[in-house]
Amino acid sequence: MRMKKARFVFLAALSGLIAACSTTRTSAPVVDRTPPPKVVEAPRPQQPTQQPAPPQPKHADRGYYTVRKGDTLIQVALEFGQNYRDLVAWNNLANPNDIRSAGPS
What is the pLDDT of residues 39-91, one digit of tens each? Predict the structure, then answer.
């Protein structure tokens, strides 16, 4: 009886192995992924570029500036290429956040 059981297990395993090897394989779908041809445009002639005019400073005399309503110390310093700390020192300002305009602009 034991021999019949072993033979049955062997035949079942062999038939399972044969069945697994006999399956048909299906190929995966293939998608063509070649890039489309590049379109090259003819170079366009360059137009001459115009340089913008440099901004005109808001001062009458060299080295002086009249503060206007809405001006900040940082704006004035940047406009003249200076450090705001230098403007504070040159004008003896106690509070750099409090600058006064000369009048209506």
Answer: 777 777 777 667 665 565 555 556 778 888 888 888 988 888 889 899 889 88
Task: Give 42's contacts (C-beta < 8 A, 6+ positions apart).
Answer: none
Q: How far apart are CA 100 and CA 76, in angstroms?
A: 13
Residue pair 90/63 in contact (Cβ under 8 Å)? The answer is no
Give the C-alpha separation, 64 to 36, whole Å.
64
Q: What is the pLDDT of residues 29-46, one digit of tens each?
A: 777 777 777 777 777 777
Q: What is the fold, at CATH topology level, of the domain defined by 59-105?
A: Membrane-bound Lytic Murein Transglycosylase D; Chain A (3.10.350)
Q: Which two tokens stand for residue 59?
A: 């001062």
Give the type of residue at 23. Answer: T
- Give the global pTM: 0.39
